[in-house]
Amino acid sequence: MAVAAFHPSVSQAALLEFLLRIGDNALILGHRVSEWCGHSPALEEDIALSNTALDLIGQTQLWLGLAGEVEGKGRSADDLAYLRDGFDFRNILLVERPNADFGKTLMRQFLFDAWHYLLLRALRDSSDKRIADIAEKAFKEVSYHLDRSRDLVIRLGDGTTESHRRMQEALEDHWPYTGEMFLADGFDAELAEAGVIPAPESLKAGWEEIISEALLEATLKKPADGYMHKGGRRGVHTEYLGFILSEMQFLQRAYPGATW
Amino acid sequence: MDVAPRPSIDEVWHWLRQVPDPEIPVISLTDLGIIRNVAWQDDTLVVTVTPTYSGCPATSIINLDIETALTQKGIAKVRVERQLSPAWTTDWLSAEGREKLRAYGIAPPIDGTAPDGILMKRIDRLSGTSNLSISCPRCGSAQTEKISQFGSTPCKASYRCTDCLEPFDYFKCI
């Protein structure tokens, strides 16, 4: 197979790093959400969560497939998903956080969806056509994810005393993990300069607008910006990632190359 | 050895019109609008397919069904290629396909209502009105309500008719 041509002014390292980041976000959140399959509070929610997970896993195949192509070492999307170790993963910490209760799952989804939506919307105009093509596809799916997670955050926030309490708690719990979405390093700067990706901080105002409007309607109080956790984007993860990987990768580790 | 005459592109389209969608077998792959192109490349017939949803589990079955159908018609070399852009949209569902869906009990998509980056206006959400009016495929009533954004397959949402009380699937716009 021909080695993929990349944007002339962009280094392979930067492009690969970005593709792993966006692909790993979809993969790890997709896996997390799929843990609800068969356990959701209502049949419709079970179906909705499974569908969301399916979309994210589908997007993972596209992003990590392209990552493997850019890397040029013959690794497939499956190889990257199943045969890398924790420190190789580039997802933000928010998506590896445990599901806990339904409220925490939904709040994590909403905080992520609002950002994912804005990121993909901007990536549709990427100067790298392959990235723009995947974003065009994924954006349509993620628009539905955001519609749903935002709607449920509003309903449960502005719901019963108990649902309100849980949603407020979920918000405060996840908030310190949202800052990582807008961090940038040398790779981001290089790619943003070449028009491959939007500068991460450029998404912040739009994200805050979506979040603030929904929280107002949900009668939830936005936490003050304080300390923000980081590390996932450079492979430094919470202990939760290891548990996800041990479950997700078990089969390929125990029976290398197994197919069905 | 005699080589069978190469079938025309029109003939191939005709054959593809008979390949059913694996999940909603009342419509064909061409009704669904996912086959973007058919062309000969030397002795290989290349069929270009665009996926409905990126994680749709039917994708690999669809590719297999296309290869099987064309091989059975005597085409020795078939290659199915994926094309992501322009992304598939329900606008490409054929008129005939929409009628088949309705008859099967699935409300067909209403064009132009896909989420396009403009989130539903707050006032509409608060007042419970929607830009969608979806008729019940069983009794035709427009008195229906959404149960869930998602349904039994990635391409559907769950609705309920408040007149005849039947739940039904809506083939949602994307």
Automatic annotation (TrEMBL), chain A:
Protein's UniProt keywords contain Signal: no
GO molecular function: phenylacetyl-CoA 1,2-epoxidase activity
Swiss-Prot/TrEMBL keywords: Oxidoreductase
EC number: 1.14.13.149
Family matches, as Gene3D superfamilies: 1.20.1260.10
InterPro entries in the cross-refs: Aromatic_CoA_ox/epox, Ferritin-like, Ferritin-like_SF, PaaA_PaaC, PaaC
NCBIfam families (UniProt xref): PA_CoA_Oxy3
Protein's name according to its UniProt entry: 1,2-phenylacetyl-CoA epoxidase subunit PaaC
Species the sequence originates in: Rhizobium helianthi
Automatic annotation (TrEMBL), chain B:
Ranges where the PaaD zinc beta ribbon domain occurs: 130-172
Name under which the protein is recorded: 1,2-phenylacetyl-CoA epoxidase subunit PaaD
Organism the protein comes from: Rhizobium helianthi
Domain MIP18 family-like stretches: 10-79
One Pfam family hit: Zn_ribbon_PaaD
Coiled-coil annotated spans: none
